[in-house]
Specification:
By secondary structure, the chain is of the alpha+beta class. Helix content is about 25%, strand content about 25%. α4 packs across α5, α4 crosses α8 and α5 crosses α8.
């Protein structure tokens, strides 16, 4: 991941969840295309409030984005680009997936849609979707424009088992059915992995933004994949080969009950989302008792109070 001090996000698009009550606005993004691979991002912070980012949608909406499902127009005339991000209405999208039942909970600012065997929850301001008890990172926040809730398209496509491509020549999102819908969270996530990953995320970054929590989880999983470290989450956390690796192990805070947000961040990491596959170290320079990391490891990026290194 390139060194950066500004938030940008490429390879993203967004869906509109229509038919909800009027709510707030949200955060500015950059590119309008979608890559065939995973999100590629450069992230620090961007007007974060309690883990939520609110979009600045003052830029004029530009029509002309098509959304195709299996070669046919899915929501004719409703696709558009706003602040360089492609959006489509979620209610119409879910109807196209099999007669969706969409409800809105004003107390939690959360929309619920059930269609074709998939139940999806989308909360205004959140950076994730919940689908069949699985958690998919949205990169940019779920936001409301003129009473309509917007959600990035890639996690929504994952939720319904759709393959997704962006065709620049057609200015179109191309979706194909036939993919495998996600299994339930209870069968996908391993309880011990969620437990220990969420505990270290909470212990190390309870006051950090949501992206910072994910980045801390990425460090642990990057170490699991590295031959230089143990090959389990528990093993990495309690690794003492070169001394205690994580201070919460020494302080005992590793055993504290993790917050709900830390648990969700852990599950997003276990879904395979990575802010950086290179990050192996992080530190808060105001709290660090040694400067070894800064002096010996290449700097990557900063999120909140943490500096990350490879």
């Amino acid at each position: 991941m390139k060194k950066t001090t500004r938030a940008t996000a490429t390879a993203l698009c967004a869906l509109i969840i229509a038919g909800t009550t009027a709510m707030g606005a949200g955060a500015k993004n950059s590119d309008s295309y979608i890559s065939s691979g995973e999100y590629q991002t450069e992230i620090t912070s961007n007007l974060e409030y309690g883990g939520n980012i609110y979009l600045d949608l003052s830029e004029k909406a530009l029509p002309g984005v098509r959304v195709m499902l299996d070669g046919s127009e899915m929501i004719a005339g409703q696709g558009r680009i706003i602040n360089s991000v492609t959006y489509v209405p979620f209610r119409a999208f879910c109807d196209a997936m099999g007669g969706a039942k969409v409800t809105w909970d004003a107390s939690t600012r959360t929309a619920k849609a059930a269609a074709n065997g998939v139940t999806v929850y989308a909360k205004q301001g959140a950076l994730y979707l919940q689908a069949n008890d699985r958690y998919f990172y949205t990169v940019e926040p779920i936001a409301n424009i003129d009473g309509t809730l917007f959600v990035p398209v890639r996690p929504m496509a994952k939720a319904f088992g759709l393959e997704l491509e962006w065709d620049q020549s057609l200015r179109a999102v191309l979706l194909e059915s036939g993919g495998k819908k996600p299994t339930s969270g209870s069968s996908f996530y391993k309880s011990d992995e969620v437990l220990w990953l969420s505990r270290i995320i909470h212990a190390e970054s309870s006051g950090e933004p949501f992206r910072g929590k994910i980045a801390v989880g990425n460090v642990v999983l990057n170490r699991v994949r590295s031959p230089q470290y143990p090959n389990t989450i528990y093993g990495v956390i309690f690794d003492r080969k070169h001394g205690t690796q994580f201070s919460p192990v020494s302080f005992g805070t590793i055993y504290n009950t993790p917050s709900a947000e830390s648990v969700i961040a852990a599950k997003i990491c276990l879904e395979g989302y990575s802010i950086s596959e290179k990050a192996l170290f992080f530190m808060n320079p105001r709290l660090a008792t040694t400067s070894w990391i800064a002096q010996n490891r290449p700097y990557l990026f900063t999120i909140g109070n943490h500096l990350f290194y490879s």
